[in-house]
Amino acid sequence: MKKLIKTKIFTSILVIISIIIVFTPTKVGTTADVRVPIILYHNITEDYNASEALVNITPAEFETHIITLIESGYNPIDFDEYYDFVTNGKVLPNKPVIITFDDGYLSNYTYAFPILKKHNVKATIFAVTDTIGRSEGVNFAHFTWEQAREMEASGIIDIESHSDSHANLGEMSINDVQREFRRSKYLIEKNLNKDCNVFAFPYGGYSSEVQELGIKAGYKVLSLVGDVGANSAGADLTALRRITIRGTDSPEDLINTIEINLDK
Ligand SMILES: [Zn+2]
Questions:
Q1: Could you read off the pLDDT tens digit of each residue along the chain, which spans 264 residues?
Q2: 3-state DSSP assignment of residue 236
Q3: CA distance 181 to 198
Q4: How many angstroms is it from 127 CA to the middle of ligand 1?
Q5: How far is the CA of 77 from the centre of ligand 1 (A)?
């Protein structure tokens, strides 16, 4: 009888140890070594023209990018997790990456959302609130608030602000900058019933005054555009770096671009 109890206790301990091992995230050296690349896409279209590779990628190529990221060991995280890492030392998974889209195109809902759901990969869409639901007078159609709610409800997509009118904040009056920050935040919070804490500067336009106004408006994280490196635990949360991915980038180019930026 005693032997049986001992065996049971031993088995339970083994099970507990296995559970701990399986659910403990892999640490990447110390927090100081961790660099988080943020990659940026815009529109996804079958009607692909390489001259517009900065804003367009085909659905098939986009899915190949996502599969390659996963197969290369990258773990997509969201801005909440990154913020927690910077402010509270939260341990991130091995090879973290943040996937973002700018502008709020309908194609993000039509093509990217099903692909991301299929592979259970998180992403953030920076939407321009004034053009939500618009298909006329814009370069590409934009998703509606209803579609935005459906994406948010999946837990896969986080919708944040890319301003209200997509103007360059670095060239506006203080009043107009405040309006862009406040109105877009208000509309996202009201329509999606969530906190809007992250802002991406249209055209990467900003100044120290603009950064200050963004924080005053209630944002926790402000992010840039361009091929400018990755983000450490000590990164400036009012100027996070993002890497533009082009539609002409092969899966190998994607991984090389990320790796080059990890060292910048
Ligand atoms: Zn934009």
A1: 556 566 666 666 666 656 555 555 544 457 778 999 999 999 999 988 888 998 999 999 999 999 999 999 999 999 999 999 999 999 999 999 999 999 999 999 999 999 999 999 999 999 999 999 999 999 999 999 999 999 999 999 999 999 999 999 999 999 999 999 999 999 999 999 999 999 999 999 999 999 999 999 999 999 998 757 999 999 999 999 999 999 999 999 999 999 999 988
A2: coil
A3: 10
A4: 8
A5: 21
Ion ligand 1: protein residues whose beta carbon lies under 5 Å? 102-103, 202
Pairwise CA distance, residues 195 & 8, whole Å: 48
Euclidean distance between CA atoms 264 and 195, whole angstroms: 32
3-state secondary structure of 217: coil
Ligand 1: centre distance to CA 202 (Å) = 5
Beta bridge mates, 180? none
Interior CA angle at 126 toward 152 and 238, to 5°?
Answer: 120
The crossing angle, in degrees rounded to 10, of helices 145-153 and 174-192 is 60
What is the whole-number distance in angstroms between the Cα of residue 11 and the centre of ligand 1? 56
Q: What is the pTM of this model?
A: 0.88
Ligand 1 midpoint to CA 205 (Å): 10
Going from the Cα of 72 to the center of ligand 1, the distance in angstroms, rounded, reads 28
182 CB contacts (<8 Å, ≥6 apart)? 217
Kindly list the structural domains of the chain, giving each domain's residue range(s) and its CATH number in brackets, ordered by start. Answer: 35-262 (3.20.20.370)
CB 69 within 8 Å of CB 38: no
CA of 70 to the centre of ligand 1 (A): 26
Expressed in angstroms and rounded, the spacing between residue 28 Cα and the centre of ligand 1 is 33
The 8-class DSSP code of residue 32 comes to: G
| φ and ψ at residue 93, rounded to 5 degrees | -65, 165
